[in-house]
What does this fold into?
Amino acid sequence: MRVMVFFDLPNVFNKDKRNYMLFRKFLIKEGFIMMQESVYSKLVLNTQQSLFLINKIKINAPSKGIIQVLTITERQYAQIKFIAGKIETKIIDNDERLIIL
It folds into this structure.
């Protein structure tokens, strides 16, 4: 499964910029990869992990702005079509190296 986070946070005042950077750093620390500006995704094993992660996002979300979370299966994620630009091959965004203990 994939958890995708889309956000549009204010970035005008210093406090807003700080909240934006803290939220972005939180996502990176949690293992999210940036797909494009303000769109991040993370691979999770099951629905329970996804719900736990969404709860952590709620706790760390700034009070201003919009944050949306979408959970999709790997099969749905694989259907993404690139209209413009190119696929970045340096990013490992599949489960080939996933080890389940």
